[in-house]
Design goal:
By secondary structure, this protein is of the alpha+beta class. The protein contains 28 helices and 11 strands. The strands form 4 sheets. A 4-stranded antiparallel beta sheet has the order 9-10-8-11. Strands 5-2-6 form a 3-stranded antiparallel beta sheet, with helices on both faces. The chain has a two-stranded parallel ribbon with strand order 1-7. A hairpin with a 2-residue loop joins strand 3 (124-131) and strand 4. The relative contact order is 0.13.
């Protein structure tokens, strides 16, 4: 009776022979799948919504969605107009301000009443005048029309009005203190929202916002004025439009470098082309399968890292096939068909186990509650599964037909290379010498202890200003988007808002109840004292300016009115026939008011400090019998939700990925101890990688997830292939040490080829001026560390501990199947 190992091998040989006998059919099916996948992939639309970055069940995210529907905040754009010479109070500059304001109001998805500019009705010319003994109050739009060229009187009027209105001199509807720059701000809707009548309001996406704002910049920037823009939609829009060029160049460069390395090591053109082709096929299939189940919208540009990972994994497995075929099977004096069948049968099980191990890491990531991470996990999962499909429909039939056409030469004997000699000498030392064991274990232990100490001190967060750039090369220093944001921050303090709602209880109205307004005013005063806060704007600010006007423009009168009657009068007077002036800060039912807080940046320290202060101030100033606070709107709230969860999920995702991989290998190998030996180098490699990344200045953000995930998956492949090769050699030699030496020496040919190609390919991305460069460095680093650990530590560890699985039932599992025969 045949044992299970022999039965599996016999079945695999029959499958392999069937594929070869129908090579044209399988290749044709593969070509059809490739064509359909290409067509399907071209139908995708990239729609990166900032509100979906953080976990959707986070209370801050839920509140942000509610606030955004009415008051915006998540898609805040700031456009700065700077006069190159002199100040902004001239015809040409003010005309640009007026036109840009009008253009913004006509853009799809803009929330009209959030547009703030000295050219909008929200900016007022307010003056107390005494005419013939009678007091008059002037309250008109600051710039209802652009002054004619040379009309100095009109220009002086606008200058005086801007300089004497605290709202305009503030950071939100602003002119800079030196009058050289002014900003135009607006918020956009990027999700479907219905009005009170049930009609769907216009909405857009960050890419369209960026393109239209950038079009304004190009149209109005000239030798007289500089137009710059900042904000979350500008960052995301740039990454998802112009930034895609960088990703495309990076991917092409990655493929070329890998192909060159593979050709140099394998010495065959097919050896360079086939692994790349397998990876590309699997990548495209991964996107096509995703579209089949989840639709044609990709919610994050992070998914564009998936092809790098899938090509890396697919190439690695294809190289194992090629090395086994050319270095072993074709040297046994059998036909091409028998050589292919033998390679397919002996390599299939370790390939499936290692691929499933790869997949498990990304299956776990698919359930991480971050849109960018989960999307990357799903597409990569489907892509890795497709690597197996590529084996049947691309690699086997394609390579077989190439060999039959004598386009690949066969060699009678494999030459022993200098690398083989070096590898065997190292492995023999690692296996035989006690001093080598002590040295290797000592070095690894010291490195692990150091890295664990560093990792324990790490802070996990994401600063959106820098996350899109290459942290390794500090690429932001030469990036226009970064420079514009820094320039705006220099003049106006920042571009990122936090929106806090003050919601009344019962019948109280925010624009009529003095207690409510005083609480809001105290809250603003408290927030202005927080480091990192550039300024605030709320309903009390409008009323205070009106109160000062009523008291003859006296600075000491910049305070709320003393009675609710005064509040009602000021609200009426400020509008002065311009309905909608307060729409940006008060809801239509007058029971909710928005307080905008402009914040310098989205770094962890700033966000944490501002949010902590906001909660404390809200509890003190906005919590009463009449009022309750709602904190959670704007870019800062979303960044806070992201930062609060990223550390937990980065660690949890990595641990669960490792655990899932471990459990899978336990089930497939039917052993608990052996999987520990396989994943141990990965654990050490992850810790050392994180420590090194920190030392070179790479932040611990969502980009790190990719590097850690590839460790949990692709990093284990080498150990799995080594395990099965050892069992083959042990079945032939019967000597543990010699089997270990020979298996390491032979399998390392393929591992050196594939790993070196992957590592160099990943590190070739380092110069790319985008986050792809950082990810490439991280991926290459962890692959290099796992390879080094496998090269030195694994043989020493196996030789010292000699896990019983390595020799358990080897004779039964490795029993030969029926004799190989050729049907050619």
């Amino acid at each position: 009776m045949e044992n299970s190992g022999a039965t599996q091998e016999k079945w695999l040989r029959e499958v392999g022979r069937f594929i070869l006998c129908h090579s044209y059919l399988f290749l044709a099916i593969g070509a059809v799948c490739l064509a359909l996948s290409i067509y399907s992939t071209l139908q995708f639309k990239l729609y990166d919504e900032p509100g979906r970055w953080a976990p959707q069940n986070d209370p801050l995210v839920k509140r942000a969605k509610v606030i955004e529907e009415r008051f915006g905040g998540a898609n805040h754009v700031v456009i700065m107009v700077t006069a190159r010479n002199g100040d902004i109070y001239n015809h040409a500059t003010l005309e640009k301000v007026k036109k840009i304001t009008a253009d913004l109001l006509s853009m799809k998805g803009v929330i009209p009443y959030t547009v703030r500019s000295i050219g909008d009705v929200t900016a007022r010319y307010m003056k107390f005048e005494n005419r013939n003994g009678e007091d008059f109050i002037v309250n008109k739009p600051l710039m209802d029309r652009v002054p004619d060229e040379g009309d100095q009187t009109a220009l002086d009027r606008i200058r005086w009005g801007a300089e004497h209105n605290p709202l305009i001199k503030g950071p939100l509807v602003s002119v800079s203190p030196d009058a050289k720059a002014t900003v135009i701000a607006a918020d956009f809707r990027t999700t479907p929202v219905k009005d009170s009548m049930g009609h769907l309001l216009p909405y857009t996406d960050p890419v369209e916002i960026y393109k239209q704002v950038n079009s304004l910049r190009e149209r109005y920037t000239d030798s007289h004025d500089l137009i710059e823009a900042g904000g979350t939609p500008i960052i995301i829009g740039w990454v998802n439009s112009e930034g895609l060029t960088y990703v495309g160049i990076a991917f092409l460069f990655f493929l070329v470098v890998m192909a060159i390395i593979l050709y140099l090591f394998l010495g065959r053109l097919a050896g360079a082309i086939m692994p790349i082709l397998v990876g590309l096929f699997a990548s495209l299939c991964g996107f096509a399968i995703y579209r089949l189940f989840f639709g044609s919208v990709l919610g994050s540009a992070a998914v564009l890292i998936a092809p790098f990972i899938v090509v890396a994994a697919g190439s690695c497995h294809a190289v194992q096939f090629l090395r086994r075929l050319f270095d072993d099977s074709t040297l046994q004096g059998v036909s091409d068909e028998d050589a292919f069948v033998d390679t397919f049968a002996m390599r299939f099980k370790p390939m499936v186990i290692s691929l499933l191990a790869d997949v498990m890491a990304f299956v776990v990531l698919s359930f991480v509650p971050f849109e960018n991470v989960s999307l990357l996990g799903r597409v990569t999962t489907f892509g890795l599964i497709s690597v197996t499909v590529a084996e049947f429909f691309i690699l086997m039939p394609g390579l077989y037909l190439v060999m039959r056409g004598r386009l690949i030469r066969r060699v009678a004997k494999q030459k022993r290379t200098k690398m083989d000699g070096i590898t065997e000498a190292i492995v023999r030392t690692m296996v035989k010498k006690r001093w080598a064991h002590v040295t290797v274990f000592g070095v690894v232990l010291v490195a692990f202890i150091w890295s664990a100490a560093v990792v324990s001190q790490l802070q996990f967060s994401q600063d959106n200003t820098y996350a899109i750039h290459n942290a390794l090369t500090r690429s932001w220093r030469n990036n226009e988007i970064y420079k514009m944001e820094m320039h705006i921050r220099e003049y106006f303090g920042g571009v990122y808002p936090l929106v806090v709602l003050a919601k009344t209880k019962g019948d109280a109205l925010v624009n009529a109840d003095l207690d409510v307004l005083q609480g809001m005013d105290r809250f603003e005063d408290d927030m202005k004292k927080v480091p990192g806060v550039a300024g605030t704007l709320g309903l009390p600010d409008f009323l205070k300016v009106m109160n000062r006007l009523m008291y003859g423009d006296k600075p000491e009168a910049l305070a709320l009115p003393s009675s609710e009657r005064g509040v009602a009068e000021y609200v009426f007077m400020y509008e002065d026939g311009e309905p909608g002036v307060f729409d940006a800060v008060v809801s239509p039912d007058h029971q909710t008011a928005a307080i905008d807080i402009l914040v310098r940046d989205t770094s962890k320290d700033t966000v944490s400090r501002v949010m902590t202060a906001a909660y404390a101030a809200a509890d003190k100033d906005l919590s009463s019998a009449k009022l309750e606070p709602i904190i959670g709107g704007g870019s800062i709230a979303i960044a806070s939700a992201f930062n609060d969860s990223i550390g937990k999920w980065l660690v949890l995702g990595t641990v669960l990925s490792m655990a899932a991989t471990f459990v899978l290998v336990v089930v497939l190998l039917r052993s608990i101890v052996m999987p520990l030996f396989l994943v141990l180098p990965l654990v050490v490699g992850i810790f050392i990688t994180m420590a090194i990344m920190h030392v070179v200045g790479v932040p611990m953000d969502s980009n790190m997830t990719t590097a850690l995930a590839i460790a949990s998956g692709v990093g284990i492949d080498s150990e799995v292939y080594l395990l099965f090769r050892f069992r083959e050699e042990y079945a032939l030699l019967g000597d543990f040490d010699e089997a270990l030496i020979q298996s390491f020496t032979k399998i390392r040919r393929a591992l050196v080829t594939s790993n070196l190609a992957l590592i160099i390919g990943c590190w070739a991305l380092i110069p790319i001026a985008l986050y792809v460069g950082t990810v490439g460095f991280g991926m290459g680093l962890i692959l290099a560390l796992c390879f080094i650990l496998g090269y030195f530590a694994t043989p020493a560890l196996w030789a010292v501990l000699r896990p019983s699985y390595l020799t358990r039932s080897t004779e039964e599992e490795m029993a030969p199947a029926e004799p190989v025969r050729s049907v050619s």
